[in-house]
From TrEMBL:
Keywords: Methyltransferase, S-adenosyl-L-methionine, Transferase. This is F173A methyltransferase. One of its GO terms (molecular function) is protein-lysine N-methyltransferase activity. Belongs to the ANT/ATPSC lysine N-methyltransferase family. GO terms for biological process: methylation; regulation of mitochondrial ATP synthesis coupled proton transport. SUPFAM superfamilies: S-adenosyl-L-methionine-dependent methyltransferases. PANTHER family: ADENINE NUCLEOTIDE TRANSLOCASE LYSINE N-METHYLTRANSFERASE, METHYLTRANSFERASE DOMAIN-CONTAINING PROTEIN. GO terms for cellular component: mitochondrion. It comes from Chauna torquata (Southern screamer).
Length: 150
């Protein structure tokens, strides 16, 4: 709920990196975020996500792809959600900085990006979510590195 609240009022392509059972992708679609896409490597979770989409009447309206997030091109994504382990966040931060447009928003659940300052946050404990607007993240990275992008 907190992740989706941080995306309220936004538009554009929405991607969940490591989409698991697909619940965030389905909720994003319900809230009008389109296209809504999930990237997941686990075939059982992909099957479950597609089943849930079919059951909700969204078959063919949302996409769940067997895609390695490190190989995915995210340059057309305006909303990115991640519920990934802390160890993945530093290299993922570099990929997102390199690929996402300035207008993009990244929302992390459970674990924040350690080197980024959130634009906003909601919730506490396991329910906490952090939103990062890429324009602000880039501005902070450039000023923190003497004007050089990190």
């Amino acid at each position: 709920a907190n992740v989706m609240a941080l995306l309220r009022g936004r538009s554009g392509k929405t991607v969940d990196l490591g989409s698991g059972d697909g619940r965030l992708v389905l909720e994003a679609y319900k809230q009008g975020l389109r296209p809504a896409v999930g990237y997941e490597l686990n075939p059982w979770l992909l099957w479950l996500a597609n089943y849930r989409a079919w059951k909700a009447g969204y078959h063919g309206k949302v996409s769940f792809l067997k895609q390695d997030l490190w190989k995915a091109n995210l340059s057309d994504c305006y909303n990115v959600t991640v519920f990934l382990a802390p160890g993945v966040k530093p290299p993922l931060a570099a990929k997102l900085l390199a690929e996402l447009p300035d207008e993009a928003r990244v929302v992390a659940g459970r674990f924040p990006f350690p080197s980024w300052t959130p634009t906003s946050t909601l919730g506490q404990g396991l329910e906490q979510a952090w939103a990062y607007d890429m324009k602000e993240v880039r501005r902070a990275a450039q000023s923190g590195a003497g004007g050089r992008p990190v």
